[in-house]
């Protein structure tokens, strides 16, 4: 499963800290197993249930959000130099895991992806943050997952969380028009 996941999402390899890289992959594999999914099912899982019939799957979305986050960070560091501090590894791990909770929020009913019972109670920022916490991801990464959607509105956010939050929304809103 690890090899398949790495070829599907090579961005895991961009995390430089080997321990953080391993934990980030472990959370994804654990979520696939806990949710009862297969790699094949991930290709079919829509990245959102809010855009009826979207063909963008959760893997494509996660990769796009991750790569956008890295680009934003690189431009900001280039322009603002020492006036901004961004932890690239936390940013990458947070972006790669921001929607992992959707593997619990969704279920498949007669072939159609719908909200699971758990998903009706806990949206993915919460379930993803809890699951990553159980795998001892750093608090800075848990924060990015927990605050990346409306759950983080009005809350103090780290620079990494702000970047992932906006990269996520640009990758959502741009596909709604
Ligand atoms: Fe997302």
List the helices and strands and how they pair.
Elements: H1 2-8, H2 18-34, H3 39-44, H4 58-80, H5 88-97, H6 102-105, E1 106-109, E2 112-115, H7 117-121, H8 124-134, H9 139-147, H10 159-173
Antiparallel strand pairs: 1-2
Bound molecules: fe (ii) ion (FE2).
Fe (ii) ion (FE2) is lined by residues 61, 65, 98-99, 168.
What report would you give on this structure?
There is one protein chain. The protein has helices at residues 2-8, 18-34, 39-44, 58-80, 88-97, 102-105, 117-121, 124-134, 139-147, 159-173, and strands at 106-109, 112-115. The chain is mainly α and 177 residues long. The protein has a two-stranded antiparallel sheet. A hairpin with a 2-residue loop joins strand 1 and strand 2. Helix 4 crosses helix 10 and helix 5 (88-97) packs across helix 10. 33% of the residues are buried. Fe (ii) ion (FE2) binds at residues 61, 65, 98-99, 168.
Task: Please sum up the structure shown.
By secondary structure, this protein is mainly alpha-helical. Helix content is 60%, strand content 5%.
Overall 3D shape = globular
Our estimate of the beta-strand percent is: under 5%
Helicity, as a percent range: 55-70%
Radius of gyration equals 15 Å
Q: From the helix content, strand content and strand pairing, which structural class follows? A: mainly alpha
What do the pLDDT scores average to? 96
Q: What is the H/E string? A: HHHHHHEEHHHH
What ligand molecules are bound, each kind once? fe (ii) ion
Major sheet: arrangement of strands: 1-2
Major sheet size, sense and barrel closure: 2 strands, antiparallel
């Amino acid at each position: 499963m690890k090899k398949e996941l790495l070829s599907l999402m090579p961005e895991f390899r961009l995390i430089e800290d080997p321990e953080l890289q391993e934990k980030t992959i472990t959370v994804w594999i654990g979520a696939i197993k806990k949710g009862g999914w297969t790699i094949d099912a991930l290709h079919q899982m829509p990245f959102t249930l809010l855009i009826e019939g979207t063909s963008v799957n959760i893997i494509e979305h996660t990769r796009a959000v991750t790569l956008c986050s890295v680009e934003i960070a690189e431009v900001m560091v280039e322009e603002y130099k020492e006036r901004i501090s961004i932890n690239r590894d936390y940013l990458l791990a947070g972006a790669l895991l921001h929607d992992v909770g959707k593997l619990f929020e969704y279920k498949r009913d007669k072939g159609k992806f719908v909200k699971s019972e758990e998903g009706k109670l806990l949206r993915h920022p919460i379930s993803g943050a809890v699951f990553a916490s159980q795998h001892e991801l750093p608090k800075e990464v848990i924060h990015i997952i927990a605050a990346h959607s409306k759950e983080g509105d009005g809350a103090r956010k780290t620079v990494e969380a702000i970047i992932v939050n906006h990269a996520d929304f640009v990758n959502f809103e741009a596909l709604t028009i």
